[in-house]
Amino acid sequence: MHSYFFPVRNLYMTSSELEKTAKSLVQRGKGILAADESNGTMSRRLEAVGVKANEENRRLYRTSMFSTLGLEENVSGVILFDETIRQRMDDGTPIPNYLIERGIIPGIKVDTGAKPLAGHSGETVTEGLDGLRERCEEYYNMGARFAKWRAVITISKNLPSEASISANSHALARYASICQEQGLVPIIEPEVLMAGNHSIDDCARVTTTVLRAVYSECKTQGVKLSGTILKPNMVLPGSATQSASAKEVANTTSQVLIENVPGEVAGIAFLSGGQSDFDATNHLNMINQISNNHPWPVTFSYGRALLADALSLWASSQIDSAQSKLLHRSKMNGLASTGNWEAGLEE
Length: 347
Ligand code: 13P
What we know:
The chain is α/β, with parallel strands linked by helices. Helices cover about 45% and strands about 15% of the residues. The protein has helices at about 10-25, 40-50, 55-65, 80-85, 95-100, 130-140, 160-180, 200-220, 245-260, 275-290, 305-315, 320-335; strands spanning about 30-35, 75-80, 105-110, 115, 125, 145-155, 185-190, 230, 265-270, 300.
C-alpha cells in the first residue's frame, strides 16, 4: 500500500453516485432553496426586519422555513451554511437528517467568501480552497451530498478584468474537482452581478466570456461535467438604469447558455440575484417555454426570490403565512421550471 494516502472517497463508485445526486437535484418540477447566507449576510437580513441577529434566531428562522409542509414537492435540495448544518430542529433532530427524512438533499456552501482581488480595485476572488478536502469529507459524513461555491464578477466601464475572470474560474474548477473527489456534487456559480448601468448585450458578452473560462478550467482540472450543476445569472441589463422585456431576457439568456454550456452538464439552476419574485419566476418560465432544445433541465436555485417575503412575515410572528408564502413561491417556480406557470396563478 502507498504510504502516501489521501482519504479519496471511492473514486470509481462516486461518479455514478454524483450523477444520480445531480439528476435528483434538477428533477422535473423541482429546484433548489438557497438558505446558505453567511452569518454576516443573514444577520443583516434579520436586523433589516427588526429581529436581533444571533445564532438562535438564525436557527429559529431557518428551521421554521424547513418545516414548511409540502416543501419537498418542489424543492429537491437546500443549501446550508456551516453554522446551520451543525444545528438541530426543535425536537433535537440534526437539520441535515431532518431534510433527508423529508426527501430533501442537504447541500453546503463551502467557499469562504469573495475577498478583494489584489491589484484590482473593485473586484474580488472567492476564497476557500485551503482545507477544502477535509471540510468536504466532514460535510459528506454529516449528510451533505452537494456543495456551492459562488464567484462574483462585476461589470463596469473597465470591468471585469481578465485577472478576475481567470482567478475565479480557476478556483471554481479546483473547488469542483475536490468536491467530486469527496462525493459532493459541485454547484458551480459564476455570478455576473446585475448592479450597474450596462446593457443586456454587455451582460451577454461578459457572461459568455466567464462561462467559456469556467468550462476551459474545468476541462483542465478534469471535472466530470455530468456530476455538476451550473448556477448562472440570467442575462439582464444593469439594474441601475436599463430595462428589457421578459422575452428579450429569456431569448438572450437561453442563447448564451446554449452556446457556452456543454451538454454533459447535469442541469442549470439559476440564482435570482436581486430580481423581484415575479421577474425571477416569469423569466424562468419564459426561458423554459421558448426553448425546447436545451440539452439540460433548467430550474431555480433561489434565495431571495423564495424567501424575502417569507422572512418579513416570519419576523412579525406570522409563521403560518411565512410558510405559505415560501410554499407558494416554490410551487410557482416549480411550474416555471417546466414552462407551465401563468401570471394568473399569482393571485
Ligand atoms: P439569490 O437567489 O438571492 O441571488 O441567492 C442565490 C444564491 O445562492 C447566491 O449565492
